[in-house]
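=== RUN LOG ===
request id: a7f3
mode: sequence -> structure
chains: 1
length: 88
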Amino acid sequence: MIPKSNLKLRKIGSKYMIVETSDSCVNLTNVYSLNETAALLWEMLCRREGHTVEELAEELCKTYEVEYERALHDVESQLTEWEKMGLL
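=== RESULT ===
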């Protein structure tokens, strides 16, 4: 899964947000707030094409002390939510 190319992750203070960009401006009509874990997942999706759900879960396990099954469930849930929102 690949994020839409016009969506960018921005960090403002301690908050992470996904915003829609264009050549001349940022559209703040739809702003999506993320926690640190979701922001990391988004960054991983943006860095490399071809990430599988399993690879993303493994990366979260390396970063956070979380069991693989929990990470896998969380990744699947987050990706499903982003798909429904039209972000992927």
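=== NOTES ===
The beta strands are 7-12, 15-21, 26-34.
The helical segments are 36-47, 53-63, 68-85.
=== END ===
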